[in-house]
Structure formats: structure tokens, C-alpha cells
Amino acid sequence: MNNSRAKNLWLLIIPALLFLAAAVCAQGYITKVEDSGFEKHTRPAVSFAHDAHNEAAGIESCNTCHHMYEDGKLQDQASIGMECSSCHLDGYSGRLELIRVYHLQCKSCHLDQKAGPVQCAQCHRKEE
Ligand code: HEC
Ligand code: HEC
Ligand code: HEC
Ligand code: HEC
């Protein structure tokens, strides 16, 4: 292989490696909620800087949001790795139910704590 060929190859490989590294580091750091249970979105995606949000809000337990129930009782375990829609997209009114529980979980805490957004456009933010 001649030199310029080898160089060209690296020009392809390096960005690919950087991309991979970025993807690995980004795990657990979503900045938007985009549940795949919604077939289509009618509002801008919801801003949610996962780790920064939870730190600022002083939330200690993952199962405050990623909860698990057994016989109607909240468990210590968390449902990490499951989307909310994997449990909350049942039946007929699936889509409405999924919206309801998201809004309930996010907004009820903001209302209780008198901190965090409660208006549509504060969560469903239009990108510049
Ligand atoms: C505290 C944050 C918050 C507020 C305030 C809020 N939402 Fe949402 N909303 C969410 C989250 C989180 C989801 C789930 C988003 C996803 O998975 O894409 C959602 C989903 C939705 C969806 C279904 C997804 C879509 O794009 O079609 C609709 C419709 C919606 N919201 C409308 C509203 C309306 C109307 C208001 C104001 C009355 C509002 N929301 C206020 C957080 C919020
Ligand atoms: C304030 C609520 C809240 C808390 C607290 C919370 N999460 Fe999440 N997390 C979410 C939401 C909402 C999503 C997106 C869910 C979806 O798409 O169905 C999510 C997604 C995730 C994902 C998948 C997306 C990704 O980035 O890989 C992981 C993993 C995750 N959370 C881990 C955790 C862990 C670990 C903790 C505790 C240290 C935690 N979460 C605490 C709300 C929360
Ligand atoms: C492993 C399944 C499972 C997952 C994943 C899950 N939930 Fe739930 N959730 C439940 C069950 C079961 C209940 C009903 C508990 C009861 O009242 O008996 C519930 C109750 C709720 C309620 C209270 C509903 C009401 O009518 O009072 C809200 C709000 C909620 N979930 C939001 C969420 C959100 C948001 C997520 C994702 C971050 C999520 N859940 C993930 C199983 C799950
Ligand atoms: C258990 C309580 C709790 C829950 C659940 C919760 N939040 Fe919050 N949130 C807070 C608090 C407290 C603040 C204010 C934190 C601060 O002082 O900056 C906040 C601030 C925010 C902000 C403004 C700061 C920023 O990052 O831009 C957004 C947006 C937000 N929350 C979105 C959400 C969404 C979306 C959900 C549901 C997936 C959610 N929150 C669930 C407690 C909560």
C-alpha cells in the first residue's frame, strides 16, 4: 500500500473511532425524552438533561422515576433499561395513557417542589 493510500484510510478510521467513543460516553446522558412508544410526535422533543437534572433536583433514587411494582407495592429495584412505554402503553388509549403518566410524573414533582417547568413550551422546547 502506498503512503497516500494509507493516509486516506486513517482519514476514514479516525472520525469513525471518535464517533464510537462519543457514543459510548453519551450512554446514560440523554438530553431529550423521546420514548419510542410514540409513533409520532406532535410537539417538540422534551428537554431533559438526565444526569444534570437529577443532580440539580437532588433525586437520590433511580426508582423515583424508573419504578417497579409488585402487587401494587413499590419495590426497591429500579426498571433501568426499560422505557416507560414498555409498561404504560396498554390498551386502547395507549398513547393518551403514556402522555398522562409522563406529565403526571414530571409535573407533579415540579408542582410539589415549586421548582421546574410546568408549562408546555418550557418542556417541549423548540430548537433554534
Ligand atoms: C414537565 C415537562 C412537561 C410539560 C410541562 C408538558 N409536557 Fe408534554 N410531555 C412531556 C414528556 C416527558 C413527554 C414524553 C415525550 C416523549 O417521549 O417524546 C410528553 C409528551 C407529550 C405529548 C406526546 C408526544 C408528542 O409529541 O405528540 C404531547 C402531545 C404533549 N406532551 C403535550 C403537552 C401539552 C399540550 C402540554 C401543556 C399543556 C405539555 N405537554 C406539557 C413533558 C412535559
Ligand atoms: C426524574 C426522573 C428520572 C430519574 C430520577 C432517573 N431517570 Fe433515567 N430516564 C428517565 C427518563 C424519562 C428516561 C427516558 C425514558 C424513555 O425513553 O422511556 C430515562 C432513561 C434512562 C436510560 C436509558 C437512556 C440512556 O441514556 O441510556 C438509562 C440507562 C437511565 N435512564 C438510567 C438511570 C439511572 C441509573 C438512574 C439513577 C441513578 C436514573 N436513570 C434516574 C428519567 C429518570
Ligand atoms: C416495569 C414496569 C413499569 C415501568 C418501566 C414504568 N412504570 Fe410507571 N407504573 C407501573 C405500575 C405497575 C404502576 C401502577 C402502580 C399502582 O398504582 O399500583 C405505575 C404507576 C405510574 C404512575 C402513577 C399513575 C397514576 O395513575 O397514579 C406514573 C405517573 C408512572 N407510573 C409513570 C412512569 C414513568 C414516567 C415511567 C418511565 C420513567 C414509568 N412509569 C415506568 C409500572 C411501570
Ligand atoms: C422527583 C422530582 C422531579 C421529577 C420526577 C422531575 N423533575 Fe424536573 N426538576 C425537578 C426540580 C427540583 C427542578 C429544579 C432544579 C433546579 O433547581 O435547577 C427541575 C427542573 C427541571 C427542568 C429545568 C432545568 C433544565 O434542566 O432545563 C426541566 C426541563 C425538567 N425539570 C424536566 C423534567 C422532565 C421532562 C421530567 C420527567 C421525565 C422531570 N423533570 C421530572 C424535580 C423533578
Write a compact overview of the structure shown.
The protein has 128 residues and is mainly α. The protein is 45% helix and 6% strand.
List keywords for this structure.
binds heme C; 128 residues; mainly alpha; 5 helices; two-stranded antiparallel sheet; Cytochrome C3
Chain-wise SSE layout:
Elements: H1 3-25, E1 32-33, E2 46-47, H2 50-56, E3 69-70, E4 73-74, H3 85-88, H4 94-113, H5 120-123
Bound molecules: heme C (4 copies).
Would you kindly provide a written description of the structure presented here, covering whatever features stand out?
The protein is mainly alpha-helical and 128 residues long. The protein has a two-stranded antiparallel ribbon. It has helices at 3-25, 50-56, 85-88, 94-113, 120-123; strands spanning 32-33, 46-47, 69-70, 73-74. It folds into 2 domains: 1-27; 31-123, Alpha-Beta Complex (Cytochrome C3). Bound molecules: heme C (HEC) (4 copies). One heme C binds at residues 33, 46-49, 53, 56-57, 59, 64-65, 105-106, 109-110, 113, 115-117, 123.
Uncertain segments: none
- Rg value: 20 Å
The major pleated sheet works out as:
2 strands, antiparallel
Alpha-carbon distance between the two ends: 46 Å
Shape, per Cα inertia axes: elongated
Number of helices: 5
Can you tell me the number of structural domains? 2
The multimeric state of the shown protein is single chain
The SSE string, one letter per element, is HEEHEEHHH
- Helix/strand class: mainly alpha
Calculate the mean pLDDT score and round it: 86
CATH architecture of the largest domain: Alpha-Beta Complex
Return the CATH topology of the largest domain.
Answer: Cytochrome C3
Bound molecules: heme C
Helical proportion, percent range: 40-55%
Biggest sheet, spatial arrangement of strands: 1-2
**CATH fourth-tier homologous superfamily of the largest domain:** Cytochrome C3
Taken as a percent bin, the fraction of beta residues is 5-15%
- By DSSP, the count of extended strands is 4
